[in-house]
């Protein structure tokens, strides 16, 4: 694949550090994500002292570090700091997975976090460093795929997504979906694997066929005139947190956030009902989708949404759901080459691509009927 990166995280941290006008503390330090936690701890403490000067004289025993979660791209750590006055402060350190700059635009992410945080979404950005960021700690547990299907939670996710889509992020409002997918295709189509079994599986993929499918789908969805919003683009269960005592839902991790199509964000979310096992029998049926749409379109008066509006959003969502399968299928191929995380990314490509092919005829037919 060569050394060409799509986006450079290190550059972003350096820029933030050199740009004295940035109010967010920054450090050029990096932390090796592959270290076991006991060996990683002194590096994390050093990082916190470098970023937050008020803690630079604290004894190392005032810091505790624990793992919150390790996703398939990041490692999340909870840091507690006992200050001189005995007060305890909690933070989250997010370490980017190795080589994630091949698929994530960190500059776009850091810019968005500031505005999303101001609008009440996610954790507050407290600092950036060479291969990660420090954020405020959210006292909540992540959802599971089955949680997202519960009608009460589905309605709350829809209401929050409606608010999220109203946040204005400065800069170009050009939808990035197709730019990103075609970038992924360029990278994914020229890989070479050291593992001969992986190479054999990879060689069965027809990238001409994938390219044709993308062009055909783009041409079709362009006719839908879907609203362009600032989209989360990765609203899976692991990026939704719930504080059950307060009944408060949080959206987190805006790594893939960009201006995109409303239907893509919703269709992508519905695809995540299947979980990483890709059990697409769990994809929501029309009634469950309509329940979500009512609370998304009119959060205060869900029962007043017209049948016409429900049907239009149903067509839009299920057309862009196809784009979600292609997006993550191509993403998975790049990860299969780049990521050290033990996950069958190559197998994931085929699960997503095969589901795209299985659903394509029905979804295309639905869209074409509505356009005529």
Describe what you observe in this structure.
There is one protein chain. The chain is α+β, with helices and mostly antiparallel strands and 372 residues long. It has twelve helices and ten strands. It has helices spanning 9-18, 37-51, 106-118, 145-148, 151-164, 177-188, 196-203, 207-222, 262-271, 286-297, 307-338, 345-371, and strands spanning 63-70, 74-82, 88-96, 125-129, 132-136, 141-142, 228-231, 240-243, 248-251, 258-261. It is globular and about 70 Å long. The mean pLDDT is 92.
In brief:
The chain is α+β, with helices and mostly antiparallel strands and 372 residues long. 47% of the residues lie in helices and 15% in strands.
Compile the SSE list and pairings.
Blueprint: H1 9-18, H2 37-51, E1 63-70, E2 74-82, E3 88-96, H3 106-118, E4 125-129, E5 132-136, E6 141-142, H4 145-148, H5 151-164, H6 177-188, H7 196-203, H8 207-222, E7 228-231, E8 240-243, E9 248-251, E10 258-261, H9 262-271, H10 286-297, H11 307-338, H12 345-371
Antiparallel strand pairs: 1-2, 2-3, 3-5, 4-5, 6-8, 7-10, 8-9
Helix pairs in contact: 5-10, 6-8, 6-11, 8-11, 9-11, 10-11, 11-12
């Amino acid at each position: 694949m060569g050394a060409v990166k799509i986006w450079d995280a290190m550059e972003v941290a350096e820029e933030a550090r050199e740009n004295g006008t940035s109010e967010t503390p920054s450090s050029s330090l990096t932390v090796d994500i592959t270290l076991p936690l006991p060996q990683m701890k002194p590096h994390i403490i050093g990082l916190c002292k470098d970023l937050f000067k008020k803690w630079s004289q604290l004894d190392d025993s005032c810091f505790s570090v624990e793992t919150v979660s390790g996703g398939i791209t990041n490692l999340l750590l909870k840091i507690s700091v006992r200050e001189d006055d005995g007060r305890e402060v909690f933070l989250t350190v997010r370490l980017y997975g190795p080589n994630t700059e091949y698929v994530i635009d960190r500059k776009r992410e850091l810019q968005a976090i500031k505005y999303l945080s101001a609008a009440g979404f996610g954790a507050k950005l407290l600092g950036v460093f060479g291969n990660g960021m420090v954020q405020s700690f959210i006292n909540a547990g992540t959802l599971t795929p089955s949680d997202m299907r519960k009608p009460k939670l589905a309605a709350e996710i829809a209401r929050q997504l409606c608010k999220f889509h109203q946040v204005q992020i400065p800069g170009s409002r050009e939808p990035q979906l197709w730019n990103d997918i075609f970038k992924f295709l360029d990278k994914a189509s020229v890989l070479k694997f050291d593992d001969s079994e992986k190479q054999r599986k990879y060689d069965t993929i027809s990238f001409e066929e994938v390219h044709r499918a993308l062009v055909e789908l783009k041409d079709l969805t362009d006719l839908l005139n879907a609203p362009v919003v600032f989209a989360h683009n990765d609203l899976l269960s692991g990026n939704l947190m719930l504080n059950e005592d307060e009944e408060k839902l949080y959206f987190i991790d805006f790594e893939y956030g960009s201006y995109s199509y409303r239907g893509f964000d919703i269709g992508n979310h519905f695809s995540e009902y299947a979980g990483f096992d890709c059990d697409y029998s769990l994809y929501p049926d029309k009634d469950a989708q309509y329940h979500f749409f009512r609370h998304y379109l009119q959060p205060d008066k869900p029962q007043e949404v017209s049948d016409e509006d429900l049907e239009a959003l149903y067509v839009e969502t299920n057309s862009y759901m196809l784009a979600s399968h292609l997006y993550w299928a191509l993403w998975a191929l790049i990860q299969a080459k780049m990521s050290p995380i033990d996950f069958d990314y190559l197998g994931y490509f085929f699960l997503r691509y095969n589901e795209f092919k299985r659903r394509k005829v029905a979804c295309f037919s639905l869209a074409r009927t509505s356009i005529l």
